[in-house]
Design a protein that fits this description.
It contains 13 helices and 11 strands. With 343 residues, the protein is an alpha/beta fold. It folds into 3 domains: 50 residues, 434 Repressor (Amino-terminal Domain), CATH 1.10.260; 141 residues, Rossmann fold, CATH 3.40.50; 132 residues, 3-Layer(aba) Sandwich (Rossmann fold).
């Protein structure tokens, strides 16, 4: 790797979380280094390239860790939003390290969080399952004076300093209202898709949806699809099975993503989908929305969210004055006629 001249070994080691000795071995192409470690160094250099403007700034410096279990399309959106906001946080200087997995176990998530506690960090932005062992790992970070802010989905029984994101129950109720209005008197059932049953945010959206549907259209059955982790490869077969098992499905509320796969399952079975409500205006959903393949996207401003998160972390360190508590993100209803340019 011919990257040593661009950044100091110390900077790459700090960004990657590896030792300076290991980074030096990779930079000088010495043997005895695993391919995965070399990949970590390459990723650290790529992150430094994108955050280069932050490296030479003068001001109080913060290095934060972004830890997420989420499909790549959403982690990419978060990365872009955060890196767009970092320069605007002057006079503080923030850099970010990213720890993204599309699927994970609670134990792997705990290992990542405990590793951050050992090598130190100024704060953690977390999207993780709401599991007791994850909550305990968050508490260990707090005890080590590393503030943790949960994003999009909460780990509510932890000592995290705040949750930032939309009111998920209100989002679920909004989806129920839209489906009821647009389906009108058309009979039929609703397919509700979750990535898994481990995320509190998804659970709250489902609860809000079911509660509102009971008052608006109690005659409609709700068919639950879960376990696809928001990935097209696994969601397609689950959606096919659900459609073949229930001939009366006429609408979809997709909480967990995998929307190309779900739409393809409708096509494969020759079934119409009369109303389709999805979450998050990522690259996939933008294409589907603008093509008329989904009806609306419930969206929230990720730039606003990550700005709030960074402010909360800096407040926890006394770098900026304490402000009001974090407020829920506004729920935006995007259609093909008011959607921004595709990401």
């Amino acid at each position: 790797m011919s990257v040593g001249h661009r950044y100091k070994v110390r900077e790459i080691a700090q960004q990657s979380g590896l030792s300076e000795a290991t980074v030096d071995r990779v930079l000088n192409d010495r043997p005895g280094v695993r391919d995965s470690t070399r990949a970590e160094v390459r990723q650290a250099v790529a992150d430094l390239d994108r955050q280069r403007s932050q490296l030479r700034l003068v001001g109080r410096k913060f290095l934060i860790d972004v830890v997420m279990q989420t499909p790549e399309r959403f982690s990419t959106a978060i990365r872009h939003a955060l890196e767009a906001e970092l320069p605007a946080l002057s006079p503080a200087v923030l850099r970010a390290r990213f720890h993204f997995r599309e699927t994970s176990s609670a134990s792997a998530m705990v290992e990542t969080l405990d590793g951050i506690a050992k090598r130190r960090s100024h704060g953690v932005i977390l999207k993780a399952p709401d599991a007791p062992e994850v909550a305990a790992a968050v508490d260990r970070l707090i005890a080590a004076k590393i503030p943790v802010v949960t994003l999009v989905t909460d780990v509510a029984h932890s000592r995290r300093i705040a949750y930032v994101g939309m009111d998920n129950r209100a989002a679920g109720a909004t989806a129920a209202y839209l489906l009821d209005q647009w389906l009108g008197q058309r009979p039929g059932n609703i397919l509700i898709s979750l990535s898994s049953n481990e995320f509190r945010g998804e659970e709250e959206r489902e609860m809000g949806f079911r509660a509102k549907m009971r008052t608006l259209a109690p005659e409609r059955a709700i068919v639950e699809l879960q376990g696809g982790h928001g990935l097209d490869s696994t969601t397609h077969e689950l959606a096919l099975h659900a459609l073949r098992a229930d001939a009366d499905i006429v609408g979809v509320y997709s909480i967990g993503g995998g929307n190309f796969a779900i739409r393809r399952a409708f096509d494969d079975t020759g079934r119409p989908c009369h109303v389709y409500i999805a979450h998050d205006y990522d690259e996939d959903n933008a294409r589907l929305l603008l093509a008329g393949r989904i009806s609306a996207v419930l969206h929230h401003d990720l730039n606003y969210d990550v700005r709030q998160v960074c402010q909360l972390i800096m407040q926890a360190h006394g770098a900026v004055p304490a402000g009001p508590p974090a407020t829920p993100s506004m729920i935006q209803i995007l259609t093909p006629y008011n959607a921004p340019a595709a990401p």
